[in-house]
Amino acid sequence: MVKKTDISLPVIRRLPRYYRFLRDLMQEGVTHISSADLSRQMGLTASQIRQDLNCFGGFGQQGYGYQVEPLYREIGRILGVQRRTEVILIGVGHVGHAIARQMDFTRLGMRLTALFDVSPALIGTQVGGLTIRPETELEAFCLEKKPKAALLCVPDRAAPDIVERLTVLGVTGFWNFTHYDIAHHHPGTVAENVHLEDSLMVLSYRLKQPRR
Amino acid sequence: MVKKTDISLPVIRRLPRYYRFLRDLMQEGVTHISSADLSRQMGLTASQIRQDLNCFGGFGQQGYGYQVEPLYREIGRILGVQRRTEVILIGVGHVGHAIARQMDFTRLGMRLTALFDVSPALIGTQVGGLTIRPETELEAFCLEKKPKAALLCVPDRAAPDIVERLTVLGVTGFWNFTHYDIAHHHPGTVAENVHLEDSLMVLSYRLKQPRR
DNA sequence: TAGATTGTTAATCGATTAACAATC
DNA sequence: TAGATTGTTAATCGATTAACAATC
Which strand D nucleotides have any atom less than 7 A from protein CB atoms? Predict the structure, then answer.
């Protein structure tokens, strides 16, 4: 059923949005929808939607549109939400804490299994059902549990050391909230960056632009 | 000195990174640097760096390189970090709380002036030197203080109503942590989206890809 | 001056959009 | 069948990269 083995990253980055949209449509009882309809509702071109969905083809019917539920399932399958990747969180500051408490990792194809921090005030306390471990236990834990991904919420200056240790331990994926350029320094890894400061500066810039 | 009035968004999105990098170089006492050197350190092509910096030209010298400090100042000026935009935060849940506590708005060209929430348990409590106000006071506050930007950390279902009220009150910029598509529903506004769930799903996908 | 490096134009690459034949 | 809508190819657009003349 899958047509292209390599789907381009811009397409992949749109999939979570399609996924959410299709779920909403299902809940409204919509069973099928045309690319034209979807384009109006999502603010994309119908052409782009057809191109995107065609990457893993077979869900549209000429003259009729796309079957909502099969399409939803297929996107979930492509994103791999049912196969869960174990992830650990390093740095339980304000942001790390918020992420650990609020995100529904299970629904997103991940499972949060451990929290680490250096602060004696935090170590041993519970957050979202997990006990914060001392960062010194990173090696022991990873050697035993072999997590493949880490969520990095430490201060920028701590990042290079932590990433080095984690890559040695076999961690290949990072959800990176620091400004340390993981992908550049560790070519074998996969890093998704969340640069909150950069994003806010861009908003600041765009607001100050005379005409948009 | 400014050469292009319209700098493309991809270039703008790279500016915060240049800005940080140049600050680091200054702190190391580096006074000038060539695009080739910078390209090695930042993992961009020298060509792209020259194209980018040339949008607001005049900081390079042939045979010599770029003056670090003037370039740093100019990027700060373009991003408008010294002119501060007033911003209010709606929704002091885990993420909103973390943002309010941790981000240094001042350094990023913004000033956080008020927090709003619906929860009686939160209203009246202090976060980062600000008292959480009831969301019902949004209109009164905005009519008086006329903030131009809002940081949206409410649940998705609350977003359409809040955004509608805020745009009526003259708020034109949103730092959007919800999945509500503000730019699509309110064409006049500027929205920077932080879609944490989407980002995590993309990481999950990339980790599960056979070869990268 | 010679060497280095920019500023800028041209070439390439990739993603988006348009068009339309295929087909439900 | 006629109408609608996809799948897919071709055209367009924009961003990145390469090349090199200008010049410090």
Answer: 2-9, 14-19, 22-24
Nearest CA in chain B to A147: B207
Beta-carbon contacts of residue B182 (< 8 Å; ≥ 6 apart): B152, B159, B163, B174, B176, B189, B191, B193
Q: Where residue B159 sits, what CATH number does that domain have?
A: 3.40.50.720
Calculate what percentage of chain B has a pLDDT beyond 70: 97
Question: A182 to chain B: which residues are within 8 Å by CB?
Answer: none
How do A32-33 and A65-67 pair as beta strands? antiparallel
- A212 vs A84, residue with greater confidence: A84
Q: Which of A18, A44, A79 is the last residue of a domain?
A: A79
- Same domain (yes/no): B89, B177: yes
Tell whether B210 is covered by a domain.
Answer: no
Residues with pLDDT less than 50, chain B: 1-4
* Per-residue DSSP letter, A84: P
Domain boundary among A32, A47, A79: A79
Nearest-neighbour CA in chain A from B13: distance (Å) = 6
pLDDT digits over A57-83, tens only?
778 999 999 999 999 999 999 999 999
Nucleotides of C under 7 A from a protein CB: 2-9, 14-19, 22-24
Residue B26 lies in a domain: yes
| Total domain count, chain A | 2
**Residue A118 forms part of a structural domain:** yes
Residue identified by tokens 């065609």 is A54
Average pLDDT, chain B: 95
What pTM was estimated for this model as a whole? 0.95
Chain A CB contacts of B179 below 8 Å:
17, 20
* Residue B57 Cβ < 7 Å to strand D: no
Q: Characterize B159-168 residue by residue with b for buried, 16 or more Cβ atoms within 10 angstroms of its Cβ, and e for exposed.
A: beebbeebbe
Measure A140 CA to nearest chain B CA, in Å. Answer: 23
A96 plus A177 within the same structural domain: yes
CB of B166 closer than 8 Å to CB of B149: no
* Residue pLDDT, tens place only, B24-54: 999 999 999 999 999 999 999 999 999 999 9
Calculate what percentage of chain A has a pLDDT beyond 70.
97
